[in-house]
Amino acid sequence: MAEQNIISNENTVPTLCKRCSISPSVINLRTEHLCSDCFDKYTRSKCIKRMETYRVRYNPPDTDTSPRRLLLPLSFGVSSITLLHLLNSQFQNQLARTTRTGFVLVVVHIDESAIDPTVPPGEESMRAVQERFPGLGEYLVVKLEGIYEFSSAVKAFEIDTGGGGGEGGDWKEKLKGLLGALPTPTSRMDVLQILRTRLITGLARKHACEAVLWGDTTTRLAERTLAETAKGRGFSIPWQTSDGDSPYGVKFLYPLRDLLKKELAVYVSLDVPTPLRPLCFGAAEEEGKRKYAAVGKGITIDELMTQYFEGIEKQYPSIVANVVRTAGKLVTEGGVVRIRRCKICGLPRDGGGGELVLDAETKLGESSSEVNGNGNRNRGKKEGDSMCYGCARSVHGAKPYEWPL
């Protein structure tokens, strides 16, 4: 009987593509089987739909309009490499049809070797990517400790040692000291993500980019939605997962928000016209970190959410999509200009933390408070100078540092 089953499996007729009914399918896309060509068209359409604002019309413009500058953070992972490839295709098609383009890119890789010596330098990987996609714009490799160049983004993290070491100094050591002083792996990863986002948005403003194109998929947005809610930033989900204006002075766009991560894992292996997998230098690193982050005491909230959704998207992709759709129904109160921002993450404050927020501020900002005759602390600071609940919990216990709340 076992031998019959083996023979039956070997002689199974490949499933044909449901759209063209000619080529064998390479992926079961939620409700239909698609071949490589149809899957390529499907993936491109999802990205182009989200980039509709930056298309070029056939009729010549009445005025001389320069292409708009967009910043694309490149981690050399599957998602960011796929996004770069899709944008390059759109860019080349615009040139072929109208000899003009609606955008140019500033592609930036954040080198985090200062805090993780095992991470290879990004210059060589960036050169390989630039050779594959020339003419798109600028390609930059920026070290994470370069965040100290943007004082407005890092003044909440400056160390008050009383020795006047605010300007200059060893940025790498400052960064190591900051992350090393945080109490838990979750808080370290949380602050690291905040620094990375603040650096990217600072670079976007510096290079006159009007928007940041994040490579987040449906899966990644679902992970962030639950992770940020668990960390105490559920109020800021609309700012972190929606297309449009952000509190950082640039727009946030997610062109891959309608695609699952497992779909992109198949896409990078296709011939489009050559596989993208060799350019995904960071994919092996991400896989190694996921295997290392076993479920246990040391796992972070972000790693836990990653493991959960990577497992659930294989059998129940609709659940992942529903999480993102539900988050998309949340709306923000007021405009971007009139919001009270957190001193750490720069996102709008919840304003409703109550005793938990006050308790965290009391313990973390004792030197900025004065005790009156009744033993109560007088907080001579503005209401907008406080932290949100999520950041207050992340930095809670960082005793060696004075946080300017």
From TrEMBL:
GO terms for cellular component: cytosol. InterPro entries: CTU2, Rossmann-like_a/b/a_fold. It comes from Tuber borchii (White truffle). It holds the Pfam family CTU2. The keyword Acetylation does not apply. This is Cytoplasmic tRNA 2-thiolation protein 2. Plays a central role in 2-thiolation of mcm(5)S(2)U at tRNA wobble positions of tRNA(Lys), tRNA(Glu) and tRNA(Gln). May act by forming a heterodimer with NCS6 that ligates sulfur from thiocarboxylated URM1 onto the uridine of tRNAs at wobble position. Prior mcm(5) tRNA modification by the elongator complex is required for 2-thiolation. May also be involved in protein urmylation. Pathway: tRNA modification; 5-methoxycarbonylmethyl-2-thiouridine-tRNA biosynthesis. Keywords: Cytoplasm, tRNA processing. It is found in: Cytoplasm. Its main location: cytoplasm. One of its GO terms (biological process) is protein urmylation. Belongs to the CTU2/NCS2 family.
